[in-house]
Design a protein that fits this description.
By secondary structure, the protein is an all-alpha fold. The chain is about 60% helix and about 0% strand. It contains six helices and no strands. The chain has helices at about 1-20, 25-30, 50-60, 75, 80, 85-95. The relative contact order is 0.07.
């Protein structure tokens, strides 16, 4: 069963890649943007410590940083909540 599922995923990915190769918008995007790097860029004279990484994770998920104390950075970036619903717009307006 897993082999069949893997085969189907690869087949679908191959078909999607074939269609994307002919898409002019995809070609424009590929010539404009670079791939996301595997590692974040180094900052001169700053060495990331485990404490700094934990602080960053905490701030990313902390809703207390918003004006309403109801939304964190990660929840504001959730596509299901920010794609045009009135509730999402009101919540996002609260953090501005």
């Amino acid at each position: 069963m897993r082999a069949l599922a893997s085969f189907l995923v690869l087949l679908i990915a191959g078909i999607a890649a074939a269609f994307a190769a002919d898409d002019p918008l995809m070609k424009q995007a590929q010539s404009t943007f670079e791939p996301i790097p595997l590692k974040p860029p180094a900052i001169k004279d700053v060495t990331a410590t485990p404490a700094m990484i934990e602080l960053g994770k905490g701030l990313y998920f902390d809703p207390r940083l918003s004006q309403s104390h109801n939304i964190s950075f990660t929840s504001a970036q959730c596509p299901k909540r920010t794609r045009g619903s009135q509730t999402a717009r009101r919540v996002l307006n609260d953090i501005q």
